[in-house]
């Protein structure tokens, strides 16, 4: 991988930020909702499904920002490449959630620039602690997201087959991302780091459900 100078790095990160927050990223893999029926939901169900999918979309905006931030300061080129590869796979999730929001007649969170900036800063901080921490942070993030997707699969309206198919595939991907980071030598993060991460994500979820 080419070594970027700091200005190139900053420009590449800015481009990712703008593309994630304001662009319409393309998925590499086909949308797992495929030809599952788009069952008509009643108004309350549709609003609920849209709130959940908005949270998941924000989660993927945050994943992009975290990984790009972490990669910006990763010391080992192998770790950096792994982080950027994970970010690329998260782009599929981002695109699928955006597609489903559109189908549900809903828009992404208005606060996406804020979510992105905050997560990028957290990614930089995690990355500056060194690569063991960097990978440990990936493991903790992915495990928390996996558990959260499990909850959303239970909370989605039963008839929302399309959102369900997307979240099932995402959940399997996140589990694999965590396993992969563990295998690369992740450190176990000490408390209160995981607890603070869970608190921050609960706050994000409460807000993103609505705006
Ligand atoms: Fe994801
Ligand atoms: Fe992931």
From TrEMBL:
- In what way does this protein cross or attach to the membrane? Peripheral membrane protein
What span is annotated as the signal peptide, if there is one? Answer: none
Pfam families given for it? COQ7
Give yes or no: UniProt keyword Membrane: yes
Catalytic activity entry: a 5-methoxy-2-methyl-3-(all-trans-polyprenyl)benzene-1,4-diol + AH2 + O2 = a 3-demethylubiquinol + A + H2O
Compartment annotation? Cell membrane
Q: What protein name does the entry list?
A: 3-demethoxyubiquinol 3-hydroxylase
Q: Which residues hold Fe cation 2?
A: 90, 142, 174, 177
Provide the species name: Noviluteimonas caseinilytica
């Amino acid at each position: 991988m080419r070594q970027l100078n700091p200005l190139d790095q900053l420009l590449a990160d800015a481009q990712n930020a703008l593309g994630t927050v304001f662009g319409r990223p393309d998925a590499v893999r086909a949308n797992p909702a495929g030809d599952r029926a788009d069952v008509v939901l009643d108004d309350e169900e549709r609003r609920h499904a849209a709130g959940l999918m908005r949270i998941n979309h924000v989660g993927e905006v945050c994943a992009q920002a975290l990984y790009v931030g972490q990669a910006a300061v990763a010391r080992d080129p192998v770790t950096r490449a792994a982080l950027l590869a994970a970010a690329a796979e998260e782009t599929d999730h981002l695109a699928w959630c955006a597609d489903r929001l559109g189908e549900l007649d809903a828009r992404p969170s208005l606060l996406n620039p804020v979510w992105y900036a905050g997560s990028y800063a957290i990614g930089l901080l995690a990355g500056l602690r060194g690569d063991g921490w960097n990978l440990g942070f990936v493991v903790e993030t992915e495990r928390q997201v996996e558990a959260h997707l499990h909850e959303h699969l239970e909370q989605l309206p039963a008839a929302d087959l399309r959102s369900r198919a997307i979240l099932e595939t995402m959940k399997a991907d996140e589990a694999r991302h965590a396993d992969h980071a563990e295998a690369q030598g992740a450190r176990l993060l000490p408390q209160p780091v995981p607890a603070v991460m869970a608190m921050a994500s609960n706050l994000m979820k409460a807000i993103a459900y609505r705006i």
